[in-house]
Amino acid sequence: MAKRKVQRRARKILGEEPVALVWCEIHKPIPAPPKDVHRAAGKGRLKSRHHWLLYVGAVVFFFVVVPMFLIDRLGSKLDHLLSGRSRGGQTGQSRTPPGPQRSGRGRSREGDRAQDPANGVFDGDWNLTAGQLLLRWYGHSPSPKRLVLLTRDRICVAASPRRRLSPTKADDFRTVTEFPLDQARIEGEAGQPRGYATFRLAFADGSWLELGRLGEPDDADHFLRTVCG
């Protein structure tokens, strides 16, 4: 379960003991909103800010790992070619590569994406509660992690101002938005596979936002059992 620092901070910002809490993220890329809608919302970020070590890792991968891999593959092909010639046999027969094939599954996925421009992230209406929340999601914190807290009469979403945080030790998060239970509810299923569990914030206007990558398995299990009970 959440460590004492997290629980203590949660009690402080809520003024009461939370019924359940869980760290989570938007687990899919946010779709591009219409330009006028994005502008009206302040043109906030639609992606989380990555730590500088990620960019260093990408540079090392493309300029060190990839060239070494290609050199190794090229060396293996040359060795094979020379070995074939030394035996006096054919090095290989040219074959016409098969034409590109597209499975029905691939077409189905493309069709799903075409039919769902929101990519399953939210209901698709940027003017409703979920869409407006999504437009400002990354403006509250450079970290993608959010703490959703459930009390007896409201749902709160909290964020830390830090880019990197430990979900078990964070003690500086603050409430960025909250909804009374007559305006929002949480929809989820207990017993989902750990690492793949998701839930939805559903609002009274019919909009919804899906969240995943639930942190701390014990917190996630307790949270989902609570909302299902």
| C-alpha end-to-end distance | 19 Å
Structural class by secondary-structure content:
alpha+beta
The helix tally amounts to 6
The helix-strand sequence is: HEHHHHEEEEEEH
Strand content: 15-25%
Q: How do the strands line up in the largest sheet?
A: 1-2-3-4
Shape: elongated
Detail the topology: elements first, then pairings.
Elements lengths: L3 H11 L5 E5 L10 H6 L11 H35 L17 H12 L13 H7 L10 E5 L3 E6 L14 E7 L3 E5 L10 E5 L4 E4 L5 H12 L1
Antiparallel strand pairs: 1-2, 2-3, 3-4, 5-6, 6-7
Task: Note the main attributes of this structure.
6 helices; about 230 residues; three-stranded antiparallel beta sheet; four-stranded antiparallel beta sheet; elongated; about 35% helix; alpha+beta
Describe the protein.
With 229 residues, the protein is of the alpha+beta class. The protein has six helices and seven strands. The protein has helices at residues 4-14, 35-40, 52-86, 104-115, 129-135, 217-228, and strands at 20-24, 146-150, 154-159, 174-180, 184-188, 199-203, 208-211. It has a four-stranded antiparallel sheet. The chain has a three-stranded antiparallel sheet with strand order 5-6-7. A hairpin with a 4-residue loop joins strand 6 and strand 7 (208-211). The protein is elongated.
Summarize this structure briefly.
The chain is an alpha+beta fold and 229 residues long. It has helices at residues 4-14, 35-40, 52-86, 104-115, 129-135, 217-228; strands at residues 20-24, 146-150, 154-159, 174-180, 184-188, 199-203, 208-211.
